[in-house]
# Entry
Amino acid sequence: MFVKRVVPLMIKKARNYVTNASLRDYQAEAIHSCTDAVDSGIKRIGVSLPTGGGKTVVFANLIDCMKQRSKKKKFRTLVLVHRRELALQARNAIEKYCPADNVEIEMSAMKADVNDSDVIVASVQSLIRRLEKYDPTDIDMIIVDEAHHCVAKTYRSILQHFNADSNDTMIPVVGFSATFERTDGKSLSEVFQKIVYHKEILDMIDNKWLCESKFTTVDVKADFSKIEGTSVGKDFDLGKLSKVMNVPEINQVILATYLEKKKEHGIKSSLLFGIDIAHLKALHEVFESNGVKSMYVTSETKKYDRESIIEDFKSGKIEVLMNCGIFTEGTDIPNIDCVLLCRPTKSRPLLVQMIGRGMRLHHSKEYCHVIDFINSSDVGVISVPNLLGMEDSSTPLDEKTLDEIKEIKEAINEEMEKEKEKVEKASEELALQNMKMHDNYYKEFQEMVSKFDAMELTMTTYESLSQFCEQSNPASNESFAKMELIEKEHKILFDSKRPWVKFQKDAWALSICSGSHVRLYKEVSKPKNDAAERRYVLKMYREIPTFEPKEQAVRFTSNDVVASKNLQEVVNKVDAIIAELQEGGSTSHANSARVDVSKFSRWRRDRPSQKQAQRVTRLLKQRFDKESWNYINISSNDIDDYVKGMSKGSASDLIFSASLAPVFPVRNLLRALDCQANMKQTTFLRM
# Structure
């Protein structure tokens, strides 16, 4: 596929020392972003380019550019890599774009002559053992390939040796990666001050710098819930994942899908990502026994055999090349026209790396077919639909291009908005009917539950008042007038369309979006010789980012929003904030403009995920075990029955409120369950 390249005048002018006219526009922009940052005093920088974007081309030209800008007689660059293939690629690219430079390799048996070199391409594993031969002043710039590995101790020790491990470093440190994210939660800010240039893989495809792709998803019906909570870092435990995926039924689905797509599109060179060696051996046997020429590469494959297998794959002697964790980085095989994703992951960076293997342009292909073998388990798996911005990963894709997926997304979003409006309207009407229907029960309900201090209930307990009262017929009482204020608060907060939760006495909360929530506090004061005064204070809380130390005591930052004696006025302010966010007009109150804060949202009526149900059960039973003498009408089995019948909204509300106050909301839900059980017993005795 040939792509016409147009270089804007402003980019040409901005290049300064970037003299290579064969560079793509974005490659020249990336180099210019690096030199601008260095000129401004920011010397520990990152460049994010997707697989196939030409990272080695960019840093090879950056080396030449920085050398020309330097006033030094001798300018020497150190290029850090972590694999042999990356070292050889880097050397070849630098020799091509910097023909006057002497490029040496520091790796295994190859030892660099420091004094005679202009560029040293070093394996991190080898260099860490040979640092004594390098004076810290020998190096004028450090390039780090696949820089998301840079927080490892070996990398940091090397940077420290060259006095380049802090922001006041005298030499530039430039990291290149397709994914400046890590699956273990470690922060790359320890090494880099700023990502000065970023290009998304989807933008590259859209702009025809990478191969157009067709995406297909296949639901293999695997049950990943069995391995939930057994992950290493943030991803699955590979041994347990393999036991779920490496079964004859799923392997046959993978084979059948491949054969069908091969027949339809003449696929010639497929790269398959498996889980472990056992998985690859099983798939290899299935493919070979059905006449498909395949071979696999693992960490146990010798270097010579690996190179031979790759050459056979490039020449077409092998149709399907299988691997587990080998070809996610540093592999240039542009003839790949199909990627088989048989290794489910929770890591977005890993998924991007795997897909990226097939995105390079090549004359032999018009499309790269990406086939994602997914499942519908709610355990955080990142699949192709998620990566392409579709919230529902169960939405099937069958050979859809980016433009077609965008149309599907828009159609789904439009349909969801219509459905949401219908559900909210119907739910609001039903809520009004229920409120009228049970108006006579309301006073009786207040008197009955007050005996058990049940006014401390949160909305995590029941979806509506009617659900609680439907099996009760409490006697009337004449003391309701004393509860007028409580009634008003109940009607304003718990009868609103927002899922408010009560997390402590005289305090309520509402989750607005990920990482942000509001809290409403009732403050009561009693001045001398005067009646008690009350006011309601609304505060916005934002969660401190995850890169902060985990042991830090403060979880949120907060600021006051409004204070008033009028509760309705305060609640209206919350509605105004939510409306503002939904319109996308401001992000002053939260990090995300996409919010869905309605008690009647469709998802709230769904069944809780297994993880949510387990969390709720654990919260209730731990508190029940500590205070079982307080609950005379329920047992541990009653808690199990309650969790089985609860909704996703109720589960989310309890988990949210318990995250703010671990005792109060859980204790009061147990009181409500105990109270409800007593009501059932009383009704039975009266029958």
Residues 402-437 form the longest helix (36 residues). The mean pLDDT is 78.
